[in-house]
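Retry 2 of 3 after timeout on previous attempt. Resubmitting C-alpha cells to design endpoint.
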C-alpha cells in the first residue's frame, strides 16, 4: 500500500510564512523612521509593487512624497558607475538627504546626486557609524573597548587616547556581564559595544567597571569548530541561582577632555545579566548635571531610584519602593523603565503597581514622598511617550481602555496633577507608537489582530497630520493565510477572563476534523500573543504550522504580564504555573465546545525556550490532553539556569523550592511522543538542561526523540530551516498520522543585522 503523504503545497505555504519570509508578504506594515533635523522630518524605506522606495515625510508641512525620483536616480547611478541598476532593486538600503541632494553608498563608493540635475558623482562621505564605538551627540568623539579598557577616538583626525588604564580580565570597563558570543561570531562581530552613555553635552561618558571575579564559570564544547580541528572549550561567567557571587558594576563617569574618572561613592550594583546602561536603567539628566539609575534588590521586592553626582561621585537615593512580590519599573522585562526626572531634578514621575494596577505617581524628589497619583483606574499604563513640563501634561500608552480587548493599547494624556484625563486615540484599535527626539508629533500604527496597520503621523491632540502607509496584505492572503480569530474564554478557575488567538488551517472546511496545536510561551516576563496585526516574535511559527493543516491556539494565561498585578502575580515564585497551562487546557476545551472541527483526541504542543519548558510541563501535568510535543531549548531545571532568570521569575527560593518547577522531577509522568531539540552551543539556556531531562526520561524507561544541533545557539540562527522542518515532520507524522512530503527541504534563512533587527527589535 502506498504511504499517505501530506501534499507538498502545504510545506510550500508554511515556508512562505516563516519569519524571514513573511515580512516580504506584507507591504507597508511597519516603518523604521530615520530622523532628519532632529526629527522635524524623516525618511523611511517601504516595499512597493515597483520595488523598494524611499519616502520623505514632513509632519510640519503635512506631506509624504518620494524622497527623490527613483527612476532618474537609477539611470544617473548607472551612467556614473558603469553598472547596471534596476530601479526595482536599487543597490543601497540607506540614504542621506543634505543640501538639495541624495547621498548613498553603492558599488563600494559613496555617491552624491543633486536633485536638480540628477548627475551622480563620487563624493567624500562621512564614515559610517561604528557599531562597536558609540559616538558622542556632537559626533566629535567615539568610545570603544580595547582589551579591558575604554578608549576615545576623534573621527575627524583619527586620534586615539586611553580613558582608563587599570582594566583587567574579569574586571573590565564597559563590559557586559553576558555576551552572546556564538551569535556574535555568526554575525562576524568580535564583541558587543561598550556599555556607555554619553552626556547630552558630549563632554562625559557614563560607564561601569564590571566585576566578574569569583562568578561561577560554565562551559560549552564546540564539537566542530567552523575552521576545523579538534573540539574547543568555550567558558563563560554564568551564575546559578543561590550563588554567593553575581556580577557587579561600579559606576564611573569619565571626562573625555581631561581623562579624569569620577567613581560612584557607594557599593557596586548587582548586574546579573545585562548592563543597566544598555537596558535604560541608568541615564543622564537632560542638562548633563546628573546621572540617575535604578537599583533592584536581589529578591526583586525593592526598587530604588538613585542620583549620582558626576562631579563628586556622591550618590543619593531619591525614591524607594518595597512590596510583597516583584517591584518592577515597567510591565515587561524588555521595556524601558517608566521613570522620568522632571523640573531640573525636583520631581519624579514614577511607575508603580501598588494599587493593583500599573499607574504613574508624581514624587517630590527631595523628600522621596509621593505628591500625586497621576493616573488611576482598572487599566494599566504601558509606556510613557512624552512629558510636556511647561504644560504639566504627560502623554502615555495604556491598555485596558478598550472593552473588547484589555490588551489593546490607547494613546492618552493627563495632567501631572491627575486632572484632564483623555484618550487621544478614541477608537478600538491597538496603537504602536514611535516618538522622535523633537517630540513634536508621534508616528502611530493602528491595527488589530485581524485588521492590518494604518500608519500615520499624529499631533499630540490626536489629529492625523499625514497618512504614511495603508498596509497591503495581498501577497500574504495569496498563501492561503487567513486572519487569526481573537477569543476570550474563562481560565481554569472558571472566573478570570483570558485571551488568545486561534489560527484556522489553510483551506479550512468546517465539515472536517482537524488536529490541534497549542503554541505556548508562558513567560512571566512577556506575553505570547500580540494585540496588533504584527503577530510578534513567536507568531510566525504558529502561522506556518496552521498552513500544514492544524488548528493552532495561542493564549496568555494567568501569570503573564500586561494586565493587573494579581493576574501577573499568579506565577510569583511558582514558575511551573507561569502562563497557566491549566488555563490552556481550559481554553482548548471551551473552544472545542463550540467548534466541533477541533479534534481534542489529537492535541500537540511545541515551543522554544520558555515554550520548550511549557511543552514538557504540559505533557507531564496533562498527559491525557497533550499527545505529541516538540520542546526546543527549554530551561527544564532552573536550579542550573541563569541566576537572574531563576531568581526573578522562579524565586526567590531554596533549592527544594526550585525542584518543584523542574521538569526533570516529572519525567516519569510524561507520555506520548516527545521530541527534545537543543542547540549544542546555546550559551543562554545551556544544552545540559535538555540532557538532564533526557537522563531522567531514560531512568524512567520512557521513549523519546532527541535532536542536538551541534553549532546552534538559542535561536537556532542558521539552522532554522532544519529545525522547522524537523518540527513540522514530527507533528505531521504523529498527529496527522501521515508522512510529510517526500524529500522536501527548506531554504536556509540569511543571517545578517537586518534579520537580527526583525527578530529582536
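Retry 2 succeeded. Sequence:
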Amino acid at each position: 500500500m502506498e504511504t499517505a503523504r501530506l501534499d507538498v503545497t502545504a510545506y510550500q505555504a508554511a515556508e512562505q510564512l516563516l519569519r524571514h519570509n513573511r515580512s516580504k508578504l506584507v507591504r507597508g506594515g511597519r516603518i523604521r523612521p530615520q530622523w532628519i533635523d532632529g526629527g522635524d522630518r524623516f525618511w523611511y524605506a517601504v516595499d512597493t509593487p515597483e520595488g523598494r522606495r524611499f519616502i520623505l515625510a514632513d509632519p510640519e508641512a503635512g506631506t509624504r512624497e518620494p524622497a527623490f525620483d527613483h527612476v532618474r536616480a537609477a539611470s544617473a547611478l548607472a551612467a556614473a558607475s558603469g553598472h547596471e541598476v534596476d530601479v526595482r532593486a536599487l543597490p543601497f538600503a540607506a540614504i542621506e538627504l543634505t543640501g538639495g541632494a541624495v547621498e548613498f553608498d553603492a558599488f563600494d563608493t559613496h555617491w552624491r546626486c543633486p536633485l536638480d540635475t540628477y548627475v551622480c558623482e563620487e563624493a567624500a562621505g562621512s564614515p559610517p557609524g561604528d557599531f562597536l564605538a558609540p559616538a558622542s551627540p556632537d559626533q566629535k568623539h567615539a568610545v570603544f573597548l580595547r582589551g579591558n579598557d575604554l578608549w576615545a577616538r576623534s573621527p575627524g583626525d583619527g586620534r586615539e587616547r586611553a580613558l582608563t588604564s587599570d582594566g583587567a580580565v574579569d574586571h573590565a570597563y564597559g563590559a557586559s556581564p553576558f555576551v552572546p558570543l556564538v551569535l556574535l561570531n555568526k554575525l562576524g562581530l568580535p564583541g558587543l559595544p561598550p556599555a556607555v552613555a554619553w552626556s547630552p553635552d558630549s563632554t562625559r561618558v557614563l560607564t561601569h567597571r564590571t566585576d566578574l571575579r569569583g562568578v561561577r564559570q560554565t562551559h560549552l564544547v564546540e564539537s566542530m569548530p567552523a575552521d576545523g580541528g579538534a573540539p574547543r572549550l568555550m567558558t563563560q561567567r554564568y551564575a546559578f541561582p543561590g550563588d554567593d557571587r553575581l556580577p557587579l558594576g561600579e559606576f564611573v563617569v569619565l571626562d573625555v577632555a581631561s581623562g579624569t574618572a569620577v567613581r560612584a561613592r557607594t557599593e557596586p550594583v548587582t548586574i546579573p545579566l545585562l548592563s543597566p546602561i544598555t537596558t535604560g536603567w541608568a541615564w543622564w539628566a537632560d542638562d548633563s548635571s546628573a546621572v540617575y539609575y535604578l537599583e533592584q534588590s536581589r529578591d526583586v521586592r525593592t526598587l530604588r531610584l538613585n542620583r549620582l553626582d558626576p562631579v563628586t561621585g556622591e550618590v543619593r537615593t531619591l525614591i524607594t519602593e518595597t512590596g510583597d512580590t516583584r517591584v518592577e519599573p515597567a510591565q515587561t522585562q524588555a521595556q524601558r523603565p517608566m521613570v522620568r526626572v522632571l523640573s531640573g531634578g525636583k520631581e519624579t514621575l514614577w511607575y508603580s503597581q501598588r494599587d493593583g494596577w500599573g499607574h504613574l505617581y508624581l514624587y517630590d524628589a527631595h523628600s522621596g514622598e509621593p505628591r500625586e497619583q497621576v493616573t488611576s483606574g482598572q487599566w494599566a499604563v504601558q509606556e510613557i511617550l512624552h512629558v510636556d513640563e511647561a504644560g504639566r501634561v504627560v502623554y502615555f500608552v495604556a491598555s485596558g481602555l478598550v472593552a473588547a480587548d484589555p490588551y489593546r493599547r490607547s494613546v492618552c494624556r493627563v495632567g501631572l496633577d491627575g486632572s484632564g484625563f483623555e484618550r487621544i486615540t478614541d477608537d478600538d484599535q491597538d496603537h504602536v507608537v514611535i516618538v522622535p527626539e523633537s517630540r513634536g508629533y508621534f508616528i502611530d500604527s493602528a491595527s488589530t489582530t485581524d485588521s492590518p496597520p494604518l500608519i500615520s503621523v499624529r499631533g499630540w491632540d490626536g489629529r492625523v497630520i499625514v497618512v504614511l502607509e495603508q498596509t497591503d496584505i495581498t501577497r500574504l492572503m495569496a498563501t492561503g493565510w487567513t486572519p487569526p480569530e481573537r477569543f476570550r474564554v474563562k481560565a481554569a478557575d472558571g472566573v478570570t477572563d483570558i485571551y488568545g488567538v486561534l489560527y484556522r488551517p489553510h483551506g479550512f472546511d468546517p465539515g472536517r476534523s482537524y488536529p490541534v496545536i497549542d503554541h505556548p510561551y508562558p513567560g512571566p516576563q512577556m506575553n505570547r500573543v500580540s494585540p496588533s496585526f504584527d503577530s510578534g516574535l513567536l507568531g510566525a511559527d504558529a502561522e506556518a504550522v496552521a498552513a500544514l493543516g492544524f488548528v493552532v491556539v495561542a493564549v496568555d494565561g494567568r501569570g503573564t504580564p500586561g494586565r493587573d498585578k494579581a493576574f501577573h502575580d499568579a506565577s510569583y515564585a511558582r514558575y511551573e504555573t507561569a502562563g497557566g497551562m491549566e488555563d490552556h487546557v481550559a481554553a482548548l476545551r471551551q473552544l472545542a465546545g463550540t467548534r466541533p472541527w477541533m479534534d481534542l483526541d489529537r492535541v500537540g504542543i511545541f515551543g522554544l525556550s520558555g515554550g520548550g519548558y511549557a511543552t514538557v510541563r504540559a505533557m507531564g501535568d496533562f498527559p491525557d490532553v497533550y499527545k505529541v510535543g516538540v520542546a526546543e531549548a527549554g530551561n527544564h531545571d532552573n536550579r542550573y539556569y541563569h541566576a537572574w532568570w531563576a531568581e526573578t521569575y522562579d524565586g526567590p527560593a531554596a533549592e527544594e523550592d526550585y525542584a518543584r518547577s523542574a521538569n526533570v522531577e516529572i519525567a516519569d509522568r510524561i507520555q506520548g511522543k516527545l521530541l527534545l531539540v537543543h542547540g549544542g552551543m546555546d550559551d543562554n539556556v545551556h544544552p545540559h538542561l535538555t540532557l538532564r531531562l533526557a537522563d531522567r526520561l531514560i531512568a524512567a524507561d520512557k521513549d523519546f526523540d532527541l535532536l542536538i544541533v551541534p553549532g546552534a545557539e538559542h535561536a537556532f540562527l542558521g539552522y532554522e530551516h532544519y529545525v522547522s522542518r524537523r518540527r513540522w515532520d514530527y507533528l505531521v507524522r504523529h498527529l496527522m498520522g501521515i508522512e510529510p512530503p517526500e524529500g522536501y527541504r527548506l531554504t536556509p534563512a540569511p543571517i545578517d543585522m537586518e534579520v537580527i533587527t526583525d527578530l529582536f527589535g
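Attempt log closed. The CA atoms of residues 320 and 395 lie 24 Å apart.
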